[in-house]
Amino acid sequence: MVAFTGTGTPGSTITIDPKVDGLAKVTTQVTLNGKWSVNRYLGSGAYDFDVYQTTPEGEETGRTSIQINQPASVTRPFVVTSPVEGSDHKNELVTFTGTGTPGSEVRVHVSNFTSVDATAQVASNGHWSVSKWLGGGTYVLDVTQTTNGAANGSTTLHLNKTATPIDQPFAITSHADGDTFTPRSRGDVPRYRSCRRNGHARPRSRSGEGHDAGQQHRGMGGGEVARPRSLHLHRQPDDEGRSDHHPRSVHHHARRVTHPPARSEY
User: Fold this and answer.
1) pTM above threshold 0.70
2) Which band of pLDDT confidence, cut at 50, 70 and 90, is reported for residue 41?
3) Can you point out the beta strands (E) in the chain?
4) Which of 12, 73, 84, 224 could form a disulfide with 220 if both were Cys (CB 3.0 to 4.6 A apart)?
5) 29 domain-assigned
6) CA distance 220 to 256
7) Domain that holds residue 199
8) Residue 212 in 3-state DSSP?
9) What is the CATH classification number for the domain harbouring 36?
């Protein structure tokens, strides 16, 4: 139980009214010696009261405020601790935090387009916090502190920045002029040696298959050359005599064409 005491006009009513809604107010009368006293229970939390005097007619003749159990004020330098400059916060609710002078107002203002400001008050421990929704665009935000109407701290944040193109001089950085490259194995890239048979060059593989094929051509006697086989597709009529269904059989025919012996250039 805490005793509140004071002085006033005899016969007047003294009211102690908590500023927090839901807490009961207490009253007392000023005695003939001009003094008053009233008891009230207080918990361990912080309290903020309006104390005022009224005459028997209800006219208010005096008012003051009193705070009890308030934590000690800690003045800190004005700093924005989050979010970090240059960070991305697209389409999300962002919490701005920092430190400053207790009782001061902190305002977060978007300076590159029109947007509603977000404000907070620095607590007695010197910390503040306020949240604001950010869209997907680029934001330039001025965060300022005002104490008793005077600005005494400011910083600017750039969030959701667009990447800036980097203009560099034209150059080849890889590879150097005159570099030589050798395949890791001979089989990586086909090698071509001209056979000049029928006017076409024949590739020769690492295993010498092209050379063997040339020997086979030379050994055919009379220069026989195997021509590509032709495919003849025959459709068989169905039960109703139609032939517009899928092929029922495929016959392969191969033919050889004889040429005069040709000279290979292996």
Assistant:
1) no
2) confident
3) 2-7, 13-18, 26-29, 35-40, 47-54, 60-68, 79-82, 92-99, 105-110, 118-121, 127-134, 139-147, 150-159, 191-197, 200-204, 224-226, 230-234, 249-253, 256-258
4) 224
5) yes
6) 11
7) 191-258
8) helix
9) 2.60.40.10
